[in-house]
Known about the structure:
Blueprint: H1 9-18, H2 21-33, H3 55-63, H4 78-84, H5 88-96, H6 102-107
Helix pairs in contact: 2-3, 4-5
Amino acid sequence: LKTFKNKNHTKIRQNLVRLSPEEKFEIVKFLINAGANVNAKDKDGVTPLRCTSNEEIIKLLVAKGADINFKNREGKTKLDIAILYGNSDMADILRKLGGKTSEELKAGGR
């Protein structure tokens, strides 16, 4: 939504923030089924996987082909960021889904 140019932009963002996790999941599922690119990047290089902390949405995105080990502009993966901020629950989820740190990827040749 960052790049959505519309006079109602703020209203749309405010309404999305108010949605329950279940409603957000249903919207993401709908968009994917309608052909949304799960690895699309906004102008800042942020992907859908990067901007969610909802476990069910993360699992759905990964199941639909989202790159769990995508590196941001600083070369950090979502797992790197979870570890950096001490979010062990998120780190565990990402690990179970195949997430690696940038150092692990580097050691593996990626």
